[in-house]
Amino acid sequence: MSERGAIYLDHAATTAVDPRVVEAMLPYFGERYGNASSIHSLGREARHALDEARADVAGILNCSPDEIIFTSCGTESDNLAIRGVARLNRQRGDHIITSPVEHHAVSYTCEQLEKEFGFEVTYVPVDEYGRVDPGDVERAITERTVLISIMYANNEVGTIEPISEIGEIARRHNIPFHSDAVQGAGSLSLDVRELNVDLLTLSGHKFYGPKGVGVLYVREGVGLLPIQTGGAHEQSRRAGTENVPYIVGLATALKLVEGRREQESRRLIALRDRLIDGVLSSVPHCRLMGHPRERLANNANFVFEYVEGEAMLMGLDMHGIAASSGSACATGSAEPSHVLLAMGVPHDVAHGSVRMTLGRENTEQGVDRVVEVLPGVVERLRAMSPLYAS
Ligand code: PLP
Questions:
Q1: What is the pTM of this model?
Q2: Is residue 102 lining ligand 1, measured as CB closer than 6 Å?
Q3: Which CATH architecture has domain 19-259?
Q4: Residue ranges of the domains in the chain?
């Protein structure tokens, strides 16, 4: 339940900022407002907070603080990783490997590199659950491959990708490997050594931190061409005065979720499975999307045949239930989800997609309420559908 009494099932879109995070941020808007590059004591105070935040994030990622770059969001981190590595290595090669289920922050960046800089992009297929086969990644590698980018966990269907295996392959071939881990923080391990990644993206607002702040981990020795020009911030890899309050907020939030990760994941898995079982057993012509086991603790994604996902969302909203029809970015678009299409879901069925992503505030009662309300919402919409009637 959110504070307004609604049942919020859209944690993959964003989360409420933890009050402890707000408290940690506040001094850096007020009395500690210094610029972290200034020499005076106010500046040094800001620098100290920045250094601490960097060390905290590095501790959780099991890397060195120098390998952490703070950015303005997950989208920027993805852009910097992909454009930065690809363009730096343009003389060496012009081939990128990615998947068709990536967030648009990755896929549109790859498309732009194709159109404007002459790169060739290979999209390795996914199976019916949205999972990449590491063998396909290896087979796609050529002498010209300069980057592999495969997400850690899918934001729409929650499928977890075999990142560590893909990373091993990339390392064997000496190709930088980036993974968008925006949806993984708080429920999956972010240990970059275990994951065999060279670059990793995080975004503060997905784990009870503020919007507008992100992280890019870049392994030492991996070169990057900056995409912004300006000051020498972030070791000349990302120009722009560091957003100290937001960075402090992100690091505080990450520490808090990491501290309860296993406990909270277990709780969410139980809630998720209660929701999945409840919906599948009470609504006919409904299927679970994504991997049955290798999926995020908080993700349940369904397709309801003979209904429009958007209409479902409005129907649920009338009962105070906030869900989503896939990626928040795709909402309002007439096109069905590119993720579901890549998984082989037919166009008309993909239109009936509803994503429910659980979080801290959700309870068994809330889940039971959803299971109680949902069949009626589907039934009413189907009653209006000429396809269902026939
Ligand atoms: N990557 C994934 C997988 C996401 O789910 C999102 C946000 O929905 C992003 C990247 C973009 O992050 P941000 O909203 O911080 O730009």
A1: 0.96
A2: no
A3: 3-Layer(aba) Sandwich (3.40)
A4: 7-15+261-389, 19-259
